[in-house]
């Protein structure tokens, strides 16, 4: 019997990885996929073969897109995953267990001060550069992805919004397998995209550019990832990841400067 759970995904040009993601979600009663209308591969076709509901929608920012996807769910318990993530068997068993226990308590009368857990964090582990990364900026990487939507909302700044809940949060055993990057080139391309989004959000919020952000934050991010969070224990991949993280921070603030600096007229104008 499938769990009374709605799984929500956003997808764009993810046909290659989406099928593997959906294969691991057979335990859920409903799968909702919102396809970015900029998608140009077979993402929508794959989703329509496997999902319960598929909507094609103009991209409105990560936070708003996820709000919309969750609004389509028919169950109160919602699991949000990305196409490049796979729910491991151990994690699936943990999810089924907590939903069964929640279901058994559903008929009981709850007091106003009930301490029932309303959301769960998942232990995400990333495969990159030929190994599972267990240190640095990539791990530990607890993500709040399973929640009661009646007690939760998406907040924050694009492209990295978060789920905010009204009630206790627990942590599940089992791992959410994250196949984030195809290679280093793919990671750099993502850094370009996400730094664009982050810089645009700073501009929208009216945040003034500060030189110290551009000068100090990138090396601070490298030191945090490589030394403080022990990225060195992942060998050379840990060093590369720390450098890429610092590069993302550098680009975010460099693009913020570029977007807010006075525009000079061209030669001869």
Characterization of this structure:
There is one protein chain. With 269 residues, this protein is of the alpha/beta class. The protein folds into two domains: 3-178, Spore Coat Polysaccharide Biosynthesis Protein SpsA, Chain A (Alpha-Beta Complex), CATH 3.90.550.10; 184-260, no CATH class. Helix content is 41%, strand content 25%. It has seven helices and eleven strands. The chain has helices at residues 15-23, 43-50, 62-71, 89-106, 184-204, 211-228, 235-260; strands at residues 3-11, 28-36, 53-57, 77-80, 85-87, 119-128, 131-133, 142-148, 152-155, 162-165, 169-178. The strands form two sheets. Strands 1, 2, 3, 4, 5, 6, 7, 8 and 11 form a nine-stranded mixed beta sheet that branches. The protein has a two-stranded antiparallel ribbon with strand order 9-10. The termini are far apart.
Q: What is this entry, summarized?
A:
The chain contains seven helices and eleven strands.
Overview features:
269 residues, Spore Coat Polysaccharide Biosynthesis Protein SpsA, Chain A, 2 domains, 9-stranded mixed β-sheet, 11 strands, 41% helix
């Amino acid at each position: 019997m499938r769990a009374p759970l709605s799984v929500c995904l956003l997808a764009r040009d993810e046909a290659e990885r989406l099928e593997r993601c959906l294969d691991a979600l057979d335990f859920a009663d409903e799968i909702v996929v919102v396809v970015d209308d900029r998608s140009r591969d077979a993402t929508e076709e794959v989703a329509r073969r496997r999902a319960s509901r598929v909507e094609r929608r103009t991209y409105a920012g990560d936070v708003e897109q996820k709000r919309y996807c969750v609004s389509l769910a028919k169950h109160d318990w919602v699991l949000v995953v990305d196409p490049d993530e796979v729910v491991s068997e151990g994690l699936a068993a943990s999810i089924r267990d907590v939903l069964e226990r929640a279901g058994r308590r559903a008929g009981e009368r709850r007091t106003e001060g009930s301490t029932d857990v309303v959301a769960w964090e998942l232990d995400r582990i990333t495969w990159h550069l030929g190994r599972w990364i267990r240190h640095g900026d990539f791990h530990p990487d607890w993500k709040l992805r399973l929640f009661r939507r009646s007690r939760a909302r998406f907040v924050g700044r694009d492209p990295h919004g978060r789920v905010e809940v009204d009630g206790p949060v627990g942590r599940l055993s089992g791992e959410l397998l994250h196949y984030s990057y195809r290679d280093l080139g793919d990671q750099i391309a993502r850094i370009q995209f996400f730094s664009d989004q982050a810089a645009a959000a700073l501009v929208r919020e009216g945040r003034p550019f500060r030189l110290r952000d551009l000068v100090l934050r990138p090396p601070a991010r490298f030191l945090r990832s490589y030394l403080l969070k022990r990225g060195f224990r992942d060998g050379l991949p840990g060093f590369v990841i720390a450098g890429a993280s610092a590069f993302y921070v550098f680009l975010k603030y460099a693009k913020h400067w570029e977007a807010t600096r006075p525009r000079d007229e061209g030669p001869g104008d």
